[in-house]
């Protein structure tokens, strides 16, 4: 369409190939116009490329299933205690209806071992999500304790008939979000007093996470050390847990609420403490009936909690 006006030159709409939704107005299409059109097309392609590369990658928001909802074939399964009979550790887990069920068929109060299913690969810089709900049964020798389970991440060393070394996000009935250090040493901002009104009886008085207090270093070689979470967000029925991991730091979320931050994680290797920024991930069966579902993982993003 010709532009109107006393001193306006003639303009023609020149459509560019491969961009049928965009028109560029350049001087009428002679040899110089074709050059201008080519330059305009090149500029447009560069602009589109810059726009695309400046946006978050779509792949970064896509979840990948760690648990396929059908079986545990892509996990290593092992005891973390001495077996109580001749059953393999895999007998402590049943997959049904898209869930992992611990201690299927075991009688409440019976003596049972503990076990775990663990990824075969190491992971770093990720967000892990799962959902869980408690069953009704507890098992000896933990009948007097709270129902117990958890996620051990940045697992760096397997130990026969024991928990692999790493850092745990504790899942305990009405008491979710504590950190267990299993031969690991991080820095955590804590307050030295008893927080939870009904804590695990063996942990009464343990320091608890408090964002405004100084960072302190905890943990030691071949030691189990527990630090308590800041607030309780568990509810009846299904609950969600998210673990945000960036290098040697982690944030715990229960039902979308932050209640623990861990930083400067280190592992014990050949007599010295080294940076702990990657490792395997395992899920516990620890003397209580629990159901896991929707276990998935994705790369961490800038917008994820810190």
Structure notes:
Helix content is 8%, strand content 43%. With 306 residues, the protein is mainly beta. It folds into two domains: 45 residues; 241 residues, Jelly Rolls (Sandwich). Strands 3, 5, 6, 8, 12, 13, 14, 16, 17, 18, 19 and 21 form a twelve-stranded antiparallel sheet that branches. It has a seven-stranded antiparallel sheet with strand order 4-7-20-9-10-11-15, with no helix packed on it. Strand 10 and strand 11 form a beta hairpin. The radius of gyration is 28 Å and the shape is globular.
- The CA-CA distance between the termini, in Å, is 55 Å
Relative helix content: under 10%
Number of strands: 21
Order of helices and strands: EEHEEEEEEEEEEEEEEEEEEE
Average pLDDT number: 85
Give the CATH H-level superfamily of the largest domain: Exo-inulinase, domain 1
Reconstruct the topology from this structure:
Blueprint (H helix, E strand, L loop, with lengths): L10 E5 L7 E5 L3 H24 L9 E2 L9 E5 L13 E4 L2 E4 L12 E5 L6 E13 L9 E10 L7 E8 L6 E4 L1 E8 L16 E2 L5 E3 L6 E4 L11 E8 L2 E6 L2 E13 L2 E4 L4 E6 L2 E12 L7
Antiparallel strand pairs: 1-2, 3-21, 4-7, 5-6, 6-21, 7-20, 8-16, 8-21, 9-10, 9-20, 10-11, 11-15, 12-13, 12-14, 12-18, 16-17, 17-18, 18-19
List keywords for this structure.
single chain; 306 residues; mainly beta; Jelly Rolls; 2 domains; twelve-stranded antiparallel sheet; globular
Task: Please provide a brief summary of the model.
The protein has 306 residues and is mainly beta. It is built from one helix and 21 strands.
């Amino acid at each position: 369409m010709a532009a109107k006006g006393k001193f306006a030159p003639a303009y023609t709409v020149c459509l560019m190939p491969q961009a049928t939704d965009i028109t560029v107005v350049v001087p009428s299409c002679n040899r110089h116009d074709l050059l201008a059109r080519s330059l305009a097309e090149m500029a447009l392609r560069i602009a589109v490329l810059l726009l695309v590369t400046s946006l978050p990658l779509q792949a970064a928001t896509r979840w990948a299933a760690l648990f396929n909802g059908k079986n545990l074939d892509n996990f290593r399964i092992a005891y973390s205690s001495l077996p109580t009979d001749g059953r393999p550790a895999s007998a402590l887990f049943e997959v049904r209806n898209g869930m992992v069920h611990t201690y299927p068929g075991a009688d409440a109060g019976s003596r049972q071992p503990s076990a775990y299913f663990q990824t075969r690969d190491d992971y770093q810089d990720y967000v892990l999500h799962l959902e869980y709900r408690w069953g009704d049964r507890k098992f000896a020798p933990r009948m007097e304790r709270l129902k117990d389970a958890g996620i051990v991440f940045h697992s760096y060393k397997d130990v026969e008939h024991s928990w692999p070394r790493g850092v745990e996000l504790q899942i305990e009935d009405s008491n979710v979000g504590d950190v267990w250090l299993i031969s690991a040493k991080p820095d955590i901002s804590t307050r030295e007093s008893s927080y939870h009104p009904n804590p695990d009886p063996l942990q009464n008085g343990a320091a608890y996470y408090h964002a405004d207090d100084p960072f302190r270093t905890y943990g030691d070689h071949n030691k189990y050390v527990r630090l308590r979470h800041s607030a309780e967000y568990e509810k009846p029925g299904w609950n969600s847990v998210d673990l945000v991991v960036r290098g040697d730091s982690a944030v715990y979320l229960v039902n979308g609420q932050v209640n623990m931050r861990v930083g400067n994680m280190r592992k014990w290797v050949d007599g010295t403490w080294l940076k702990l920024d990657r490792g395997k991930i395992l899920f516990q069966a620890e003397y209580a009936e629990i159901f896991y579902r929707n276990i998935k993982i994705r790369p961490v993003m800038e917008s994820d909690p810190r």
